[in-house]
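User: C-alpha cells in, sequence out, please.
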C-alpha cells in the first residue's frame, strides 16, 4: 500500500514539473512570437556576463524591432 501511494505521489509530482516547464517556456517566448537567445558578453576583467536576448520573430532588416536583453549572471 505504501509503495503504491509513493508511486502515485511521484507520478503527480513529475506531471506537475513537466507541465510547469512547458508553461514557463510558452510564457517566456510569448506563445512562440519571441526568440530567446543566450549571449555571453566579455568584460574588462576577462569574465563573461551571461544574458538572455528576447528577439521578436517579426523583426528583420526591413521591419526593425527592439531587442530586450536581460543580464543576470557574471561567469568566470
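Assistant: Sequence out:
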Amino acid at each position: 500500500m505504501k509503495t503504491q501511494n509513493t508511486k502515485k505521489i511521484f507520478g503527480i509530482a513529475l506531471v506537475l514539473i513537466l507541465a510547469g516547464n512547458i508553461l514557463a517556456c510558452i510564457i517566456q517566448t510569448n506563445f512562440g512570437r519571441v526568440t530567446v537567445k543566450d549571449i555571453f558578453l566579455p568584460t574588462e576583467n576577462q569574465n563573461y556576463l551571461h544574458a538572455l536576448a528576447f528577439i521578436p520573430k517579426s523583426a528583420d532588416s526591413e521591419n526593425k524591432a527592439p531587442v530586450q536583453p536581460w543580464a543576470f549572471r557574471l561567469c568566470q
